[in-house]
């Protein structure tokens, strides 16, 4: 497959890039700072550009046909709004539509879900209040994707960790109350799930909750 990763220098983005290369895919990493990627591979193509610059994104997206685009771009903080990332989402979605990207898979957040309260007090009371601005931005980005003509998947994990890959996680459209869940997820497991979605239509045009 031919894959493009936005946010390839991030912690999850790097795991997606590495996993896609291990699976034998051609991978284009769209980054603003190539030195942060710290990876080389014959099938890895690095494009430098600004996510807020439509011309930069359009150039890389129209250069070839991508079967899948991954969006792993995220805010550095939990408390302030980042309108620049909403604009970035508009740019990624528009250019993906115009250039017929096969599937658009984005990392959202479990906290935005209408059934997040089923995860307990943290997601019922604390997250909605403390992370109000972060949730606002996530909802706006999700809405841009949902209103698009793309074949999208919104992947909604809880808090992410840097634990190693275990392959032990669950995924579902509607949150099932189950106290055995850890309500955290390693980025390595998240990347594994996202890579599997490339060849799996189960969650096409759906929001999917995923957790360990
Ligand atoms: N952290 C959590 O617990 C958690 C929980 C649920 C969902 N999520 C979501 O999961 C995704 C990945 O999280 P992560 O912790 O792996 O991300 P991360 O390590 O913070 O990486 C964020 C990525 O976004 C890029 N980025 C941020 N602002 C940018 C800007 N203005 N212009 C261009 N690129 C920009 C960064 O580029 P640079 O490397 O150049 O800075 C980096 O590639 C995010 O969408 C996040 O919202 C996170």
From TrEMBL:
Residues 7-200 form the NAD(P)-binding domain. GO terms for molecular function: biliverdin reductase [NAD(P)H] activity; riboflavin reductase (NADPH) activity. Pfam families: NAD_binding_10. It comes from the Bacteria. This is NADH-flavin reductase.
């Amino acid at each position: 497959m031919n894959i493009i990763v936005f946010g390839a220098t991030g912690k999850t983005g790097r795991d997606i890039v590495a996993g896609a290369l291990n699976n034998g895919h051609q991978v284009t990493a769209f980054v603003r700072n190539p030195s942060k990627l710290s990876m080389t591979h014959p099938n890895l193509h690095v494009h430098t550009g600004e996510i807020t610059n439509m011309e930069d994104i359009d150039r890389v997206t129209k250069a070839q046909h991508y079967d899948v685009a991954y969006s792993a771009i995220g805010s550095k903080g939990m408390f302030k709004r980042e309108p620049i990332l909403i604009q970035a989402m508009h740019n990624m979605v528009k250019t993906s539509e115009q250039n017929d990207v096969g599937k658009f898979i984005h990392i959202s957040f479990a906290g935005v879900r209408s059934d997040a309260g089923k995860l307990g007090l943290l997601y019922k009371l604390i997250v909605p209040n403390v992370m109000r601005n972060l949730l606002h931005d996530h909802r706006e980005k999700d809405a841009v994707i949902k209103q698009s003509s793309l074949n999208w998947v919104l992947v909604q994990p809880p808090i992410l960790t840097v634990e190693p890959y275990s392959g032990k996680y669950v995924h579902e459209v509607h949150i099932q109350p189950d106290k055995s869940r850890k309500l955290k997820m390693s980025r390595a497991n998240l990347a594994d799930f996202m890579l599997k979605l490339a060849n799996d239509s189960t969650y096409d045009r759906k929001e999917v909750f995923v957790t360990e």
